[in-house]
Design a protein that fits this description.
Layout lengths: L1 E4 L4 E4 L4 H18 L12 H8 L3 H14 L2 E4 L3 E4 L24 E2 L12 H14 L14 H15 L8 E4 L2 H14 L5 E2 L6 H9 L9 E2 L2 E2 L9 E4 L13 H14 L2 E5 L23 E6 L11 E4 L2 H11 L7 H12 L2 H27 L4 E3 L6 E5 L5 H10 L2 E2 L1 E2 L15 E5 L5 H14 L2
Parallel strand pairs: 5-16, 7-10, 10-11, 11-12
Antiparallel strand pairs: 1-2, 3-4, 6-13, 8-9, 12-13, 14-15, 15-18, 17-18
């Protein structure tokens, strides 16, 4: 389907195949327009906001396409002069170019996108020891198809650990092991739909992949308000469930206010609704006592969701759900007739937890991430006094509040520097009933220790 760029009279042939497909389509169309000379060197492109409105697509899609082309050298981005066609991208081919394989995105020099820990710090030696012990003692039947809820050794270890570390009230029989959070959310979407739920209220800021998974299950995902006290679950309309990050709102970094914790639990008990609690980084608290899991207040109305993705590594694909007793059997059934998570990895994590290796690793990681957070806050205060660092009492990322109207230009400048990061608008729900804010969401967990100083310097160079 051709969508016209009315301001310059160029037809951009974009196929409506989802946000990822539109981004690739827009990137390819703009690159082709520059390559063939339809966009001349020095041409100033419209702002991402105006082009998005013209094409009828999300502003984030345009901003990300611009950033890709800046990184490739087809466009230039300079603060104050906007985004323009680079001087060298004009030669038109004499004949059609041969088909080329799909472009593999260039790896950024520094990755500050939130959501990933320092993978170089994965405890390989301790994990290998745990794997050897687990394999040596595993019964033969552990290598069979298995219980869809997961290995009993891991469910027992998780019940003990979560009760001690997060205040979760769990019985091994109500725990279902999953291949990460997205897998858990997919299973829950199936269960909720089968129960007659049609709407799951979500937070104004979060991850679009989670909203898409719920919508893929046939569930509407209206956004809850957000204010100075954080997310306001209030009375979530006709929703049969709400998805929250109550201990450390992602990405804003605020915990759910105590009054609102009580209110959402009261709503769930009064209406029979469910609270889906995403405790994505519960282990990492720095300046205050850990905020206990909401599940401890109402284990009969809260589904607690956790993973090893932040504490260890997302590549392990290990997560878990602690469910109300009446929901556990339905979730296990929706997951499938047999276990779909590797038994050896489950047994290894069980050994890692019970041996104390997990606690030792988390303590070490907490100190390392706290040092990085402190260095980030100090550097921004010294180099960019107009930028305010928030949401840093916990977690692996910070929110940098920017002067109004500067987010897009800073994200583009960062791409030009080979620095991958997200603007806050990337995480804003399309129907969020809140006033947009200009900010960056900076993940300080991903770079290895050897690259952290360089990443921080590159970040400070692009801040206003």
């Amino acid at each position: 389907m051709a969508r016209s760029w009315a301001t310059l009279g160029i037809d951009l042939h974009l196929e409506p195949t989802g946000s990822g497909g539109l981004r690739r389509g827009l990137t390819d169309a703009l690159r082709d327009a520059v390559r063939t000379g339809r966009l001349a060197p020095g041409t100033r492109l419209p702002s991402s906001r105006s082009l998005a409105a013209d094409l009828g697509i999300a502003r984030n899609t345009v901003a990300e396409a611009y950033a890709d082309l800046v990184a490739e050298g087809w466009l230039t981005a300079r603060q104050g002069s906007g985004t323009r066609v680079a001087p060298h991208g004009t030669s038109a081919p004499a004949a059609p170019a041969p088909a080329t394989p799909a472009r593999i995105p260039a790896r950024p020099r520094y990755d500050l996108v939130p959501g990933t820990p320092d993978l170089a710090a994965f405890p390989r030696a301790e994990w290998l020891k745990a794997a050897r012990r687990a394999l040596a003692t595993a019964p033969f039947h552990a290598l069979g198809y298995g219980d869809p809820r997961g290995r009993p050794e891991l469910r027992a270890a998780l019940a003990g650990y979560l009760a001690r570390a997060r205040g979760v009230r769990a019985d091994p029989d109500t725990i279902v092991v999953t291949a990460g959070f997205s897998h858990a959310l997919t299973v829950l979407g199936t269960v909720l739909r089968a129960r007659g739920v049609r709407t799951v209220a979500v937070e104004s800021y979060g991850l679009d992949v989670h909203w898409a998974l719920l919508r893929g299950a046939g569930l509407a995902t209206p956004a809850l308000p957000y204010d100075d006290l954080g997310t306001d679950p209030g009375e979530p309309g006709e929703a049969g469930a709400v998805l929250l990050t109550p201990a450390h709102q992602f990405p804003m970094g605020t915990p759910l206010h105590p009054d609102r914790r009580s209110a959402v639990v009261a709503w769930a008990r009064r209406t029979g609704g469910l609270i889906l609690e995403d405790d994505y980084d519960g282990e990492f608290r720095y300046d205050r006592q850990p905020v206990g899991a909401l599940q401890g207040l109402a284990p009969d109305r809260v589904v607690y969701l956790g993973t090893a993705s932040k504490s260890l590594a997302p590549g392990l694909r290990l997560g878990w759900m602690v469910l109300p007793p009446d929901l556990a059997a339905e979730a296990a059934s929706a997951k499938g007739r047999v276990d779909t998570v590797g038994a050896l990895d489950q047994l290894t994590l069980a050994e890692f937890l019970t041996s104390g290796a997990y606690d030792r690793h988390v303590r070490s990681a907490r100190l390392r991430y706290r040092r990085r957070r402190d260095a980030l806050a100090t550097a921004v205060a010294e180099r960019a006094p107009d930028v305010r660092v928030t949401g840093i009492a916990a977690g692996l990322h910070a929110v940098l509040r920017l002067p109004a109207g500067t987010e897009e230009s800073v994200v583009q400048a960062a791409a030009w520097q080979g620095l991958a990061l997200h603007g806050l608008s990337f995480h804003r729900h399309p129907q969020a009933p809140t006033t947009p804010l200009d900010a960056l969401v900076v993940g300080y967990g991903t770079p290895p220790d050897s690259a952290w100083a360089g990443a921080l310097e590159a970040l400070c160079r692009v801040l206003p």
